[in-house]
């Protein structure tokens, strides 16, 4: 498979990178962290000015009609600035409804999602009790769970949409490492739930979008840590010369660059494979999530160390990247989970 961005995709990439560079500043991210964990003004501008809340959703319901490659470009640009947006749950719920919902369910929910009017959250591999069309269960560590309007619950081959403002819903917010994506525990007690018509397709679509979103965010964050560190290496002078001129420093930067370029290939291989319905898509998704997440964590750690004493202060932006990187590593399956899945695909019973 050979991959290259089209002219339209290059334009989308330039647009979203410019948007987040201008609006998703460190000051705004920290302001959101001190508040509820979402920059609602940024989300509103993302949806209304760029019209990208409907990224990868059908045009018939107000979406852009684009694919996973474009979603990856958006997530990469957002991740580069640790933007405090509810993008992960949004794309997971949107894809679940678009791929697994009935015509009526798509008409009911997708227009509001494309307009950015709803905040969404999603569970992963949940255990639920179903009785009379109502759900009961406890779901820990739900990203943006305390702020969400809709919750996607998946269990087995079934998927449901739950209105979190309805009865039988109890939400407990938590203070977590990555304050730009705060977690919550959600407890449903005989809560009204709407089963998606094709649960298996909804689950697959949600997982695919979630993995691509996280992997692309990690790629954008890793690249930004390298860019920041390279800039610092040219400005900081020690022993009468820029610290970037020292061989040991150069080697660390080179290691970061190599890992990032491999992660970039993995992320866009996965996104392209999904869009092309390639037989490699499942393997590529696991590879992208595990490789990009681990790369981001390595690069974020190097950023702290290579900035010296100032990098270890909590007020330095290096810690925004480090916290996001650590969070991404554990979300929707850690590296061990994804590498085991790859081993099973490649080796079969021998794994």
Number of helices: 11
The separation of the N and C termini measures 27 Å
Low-confidence stretches: none
SS-based class:
alpha+beta
Main β-sheet, in a few words? Answer: 7 strands, mixed
How does CATH name the architecture of the domain at 201-350?
Answer: Up-down Bundle
Mean pLDDT: 94
Q: Quick one: CATH superfamily of the domain at 201-350? A: Butyryl-CoA Dehydrogenase, subunit A, domain 3
The top level CATH class name of the domain at 201-350: Mainly Alpha
Describe the structure.
With 351 residues, the protein is of the alpha+beta class. It has a domain of 150 residues: Butyryl-CoA Dehydrogenase, subunit A, domain 3. The protein is 55% helix and 14% strand. It contains eleven helices and nine strands. Strands 1, 2, 3, 4, 5, 6 and 7 form a seven-stranded mixed β-sheet that branches. Strands 8-9 form a two-stranded antiparallel sheet. Helix 4 packs parallel to helix 7, helix 7 packs antiparallel against helix 8 and helix 8 packs antiparallel against helix 9. The longest helix has 37 residues. The mean pLDDT is 94.
